[in-house]
């Protein structure tokens, strides 16, 4: 086993990780505005001074929570795009590249993070600006591929499709059990894989747009 895998987090790093984990869960459950720094501190078993030391403010803490997994999603998404440089990518390939990194976050224990970002999009609450500011910048390479897929479609339309695809993806993956309950008893046997495949189908349609999509003027 290499030294990196065996490395034990330093005390300050461990405190920072506990604060991020506690804030991620509390923000997802109650909303950013309803959670005080003292509540986060108590959940992380530390003190308010530690929050100010590591993050500066509540806004800094929220930014750290969002970035903790945004970097993972963006990295995995760009890695998929790098596998086929210079090639035209089909809409379903782009949909997979969009959905699968969020599935990876879910599988790595990030359900609360997915719910948090989905909640910010749905409610427009504190933190939405932080998501919006980085979303299109982080997905620039993805939007370039989407532009190649739909030449002549206005950029604002492509941006809109992408943002709505994100909303649907987070809504579904943030609570897969809710998706089953929404469809009644017949959906009780739906596997996670089947739901993800159906989600990829929906995102494919959203990214591709309708036949004869409006061209740039």
From TrEMBL:
DNA-binding region: 36-55
Gene3D superfamilies named in the record: Tetracycline Repressor, domain 2
InterPro entries xref list: Homeodomain-like_sf, HTH-type_TetR-like_transc_reg, HTH_TetR, PsrA_TetR_C, Tet_transcr_reg_TetR-rel_C_sf
Pfam families from the UniProt entry: TetR_C_30 (PF17939), TetR_N (PF00440)
Keyword terms of this UniProt record: DNA-binding, Transcription, Transcription regulation
PROSITE patterns given in the database record: HTH_TETR_2 (PS50977)
Domain HTH tetR-type: residue ranges: 13-73
Protein name per its UniProtKB record: TetR family transcriptional regulator
